[in-house]
Amino acid sequence: MKDRAKLRLRIAQFLIFIVLAINSFCAVDFIVRPNLYMGAYELSGEVGRVVMIGYGILFLMWQVPYFFALAQPIVHRTSLIQAILMQTIGLIGESFLLQSIPLEHSLLRGSILRFIIFDAGGLVLLILAALVIRKTYAKQ
Hints:
Number of helices: 7
Structural class: mainly alpha
Strand content: under 5%
C-alpha cells in the first residue's frame, strides 16, 4: 500500500512539474526575449519592452506556490490549492478580458486566447494532481 501512495505522490509531482516548468519557461522567455512578444500585445519601443519584462517578472513571482506544491504536495497542500486558485483566476480573468477586446484586434485576441488555453491546460493538470493524492490528504 505504501508503494501506491508513493506512486500517487510522484504522479502528482510530475503533473505539477509540467505546469511549473511551462509557466517558468514562459516567464523567463518574456524577460529574456521581450521583443518576441511586444507585437502580439500591440506594443512597441522601450515601453513595450519594459511591459513584457514586467509581465515576465510577474509570471515568475506567481510561481512561488507551485514550487512548494511540487516539493511536498501533501505537506504543502495549501500551496497546491493556491496554485489551482491562481490558474482559475487567470482562466476566468483572461476569458473576460478576451470578451472586452474588439474583434478588429485579432492579433491581440489570439494572444489572450493562447493564455486561456495555456491556463486551462495547467488548471486541468493541477486538479488532476490534487485528485491523485486526495486519499493521502484524508489520511493526514
